[in-house]
Amino acid sequence: MPDDALIHDPDGGMPRLLEIMRRLRDPQRGCPWDIEQDFASIAPYTIEEAYEVADAIARSDWPELEGELGDLLLQTVYHTQMGEEAGHFTFDSVVKAISDKMVARHPHVFGDESRDKTADQQVADWEKIKAAERAGKAQARTLDGVAINLPALTRAVKLQKRAARVGFDWPDVAQVVDKITEEAAELIEARDTQSHAEMTEEYGDLMFVMANLARHLDIDPEEALRAANTKFTRRFAAIEDALATDGRTPADSDLAEMDALWDAAKMRERKSDKND
User: Fold this and answer.
1) Is the dihedral of CA 92, 93, 97, 103 positive or negative?
2) Of 172, 192, 219, which residue sits at a domain end?
3) 135 is in which domain, residue-wise?
4) Are residues 157 and 132 in the same domain?
5) Which pTM does this prediction carry?
6) 158 and 183 together in one domain
7) Which of the listed residues 43, 76, 103 is the one where a domain comes to its end?
8) Rounded-to-integer distance, Cα 59 and Cα 72, Å
9) Which intervals hold domain NTP pyrophosphohydrolase MazG-like (predicted)?
């Protein structure tokens, strides 16, 4: 029988949250929606909550971050409850696994190895340990274990980093730029002479090389694109604000006028940056 006293105890901590989830999934007393869910149906919510955590951090909204971290924690509890029901794992086994992993991956903190290492040396050691773990899981290939459902740009960079560790990489940024020029030309040719599927493939090739350039320049392509999205949103809002001063919307304007307003917004931003 679910523990009602624990569920309503504001100081119940982690056991309270686990009991709440057990109640939500209880076939007789639970929530019909929660009972119907499975790993696949909950996974999109897990990804969404992780992005909302990142968004709160980007905005330095610490009260919001507190709530979003709770939402993300709930996702872990949700999956572990379903895992326990199916006999796959439990919350305690998940906690033990990650604790064991952190101890094993930090021998310079929890073991006998020296802490007198550079950050690069620690990263290299970390990757060696991860490679050994993958080998133990029969993931012997270089690119094994890079999650398929990562954002595409992030996954591209991770794949390229793995390949680079075994020497499959351009040694110079100039060669990457040359490859971008080559792929852009192939995309234009596909647009003019090939099918939409072939054009899509060429576009993917160009994006993959652009991610490679970001890696060589030590740029996070996801972060760079998010910043570009924010800038576009901000400047387009400036266009709308300018048009609204005489009661118009973008639909009442034309490209030439909106382009001029865009340039004006860009100039204001540059002047503001110089004054800061």
Assistant:
1) positive
2) 219
3) 112-140
4) no
5) 0.65
6) yes
7) 103
8) 18
9) 37-110
